[in-house]
Specification:
Elements: E1 4-8, H1 16-26, E2 31-34, H2 40-46, E3 51-54, H3 71-77, E4 81-84, H4 87-90, H5 96-109, E5 112-117, H6 121-124, H7 128-138, E6 148-152, H8 166-180, E7 184-187, H9 195-199, E8 206-209, H10 216-228
Parallel strand pairs: 1-2, 1-8, 2-3, 3-4, 4-5, 5-6, 6-7, 7-8
Helix pairs in contact: 1-10, 7-8
Bound molecules: phosphoenolpyruvate (PEP).
Length: about 230
């Protein structure tokens, strides 16, 4: 599988105009752009090469679920990928059970699901075996699927400037691949300076990029590294 690079814009930028500007600049073949919900339509309108993703997707198809957006709606809207279980959502109370349900609903609706997992610092301090066990537990309710991708994102590495050691990320990616036979992305403080060290690992199929993804200059460099590796 070719290496991919996913731009998780999180709750950025503030305006549709700015979203369109960034999307145009990041519109490359091996890229998935994941804007906030209000900008999905505008970004869809300008993408010629990149795929469109959503930052979350609910597990029910439709009904009385105020504030939620379903995988089926997203699929019909032209979205190809959905992130579920990002640690910023787990922090708001999402459980492994809920995330597994979201992943299943996304796959059933025809989306490619990027399911995020990752250990906190106190687990990482106990070493790679403890981290591996923690990740296996987070994935214990998840069903294998050809449409599933797992993103390994250590919580302590997200938005902190402290990326994981690529060897350790590759070790956890291997644990996940052996368990579910799915591609694994790494996420956590990646940038154009460290992207290659992760992308050159055979266990790592791509990057989930947060902060650097709203800096088109930086992100484009990362996309070129992913394409050429
Ligand atoms: C993320 O939000 O998924 C992420 C990896 O963020 P950052 O690249 O900023 O650490």
């Amino acid at each position: 599988m070719k290496k991919i690079i996913v731009a998780n814009w999180k709750m950025n930028p503030l305006t549709e105009r700015e979203a369109v500007r960034i999307a145009r600049a990041e519109d490359k073949n091996n890229v998935v752009i994941v804007p906030p919900f209000p900008f999905l339509g505008a970004v869809r309108g300008v993408l010629k090469n990149a795929s469109l993703g959503a930052q979350d997707a609910f597990f029910e198809e439709k009904g009385a679920y105020t504030g939620e957006v379903s995988s089926a709606m997203l699929k019909k809207f032209g979205v190809r990928y959905a992130i579920v279980g990002h640690s910023e959502r787990r922090r708001l109370g999402e459980s492994d059970e809920m995330i597994a349900k979201k992943a299943k609903a996304g796959v059933d609706a025809g989306l490619k699901v990027i399911l995020c997992v990752g250990e906190p610092m106190d687990i990482r301090r106990r070493g790679r075996n403890a981290a591996g066990a923690f990740i296996r537990k987070q994935l214990s309710r998840v069903k294998r699927s050809k449409s599933l991708i797992v993103a390994y994102e250590p919580i302590w590495a997200i938005g902190t400037g402290k990326n994981a050691d690529p060897e350790e990320a590759a070790y956890v990616a291997d644990v996940i691949r052996k368990m579910l036979h799915v591609p694994v992305l790494y996420g956590g403080s990646t940038n154009s300076r460290n992207a290659k060290s992760f992308l050159e690992k055979k266990e790592i199929t791509g990057l989930l990029v947060g902060g650097a993804s709203i800096d088109p200059k930086e992100f484009k460099k990362m996309a070129v590294i992913a394409r050429d590796i």
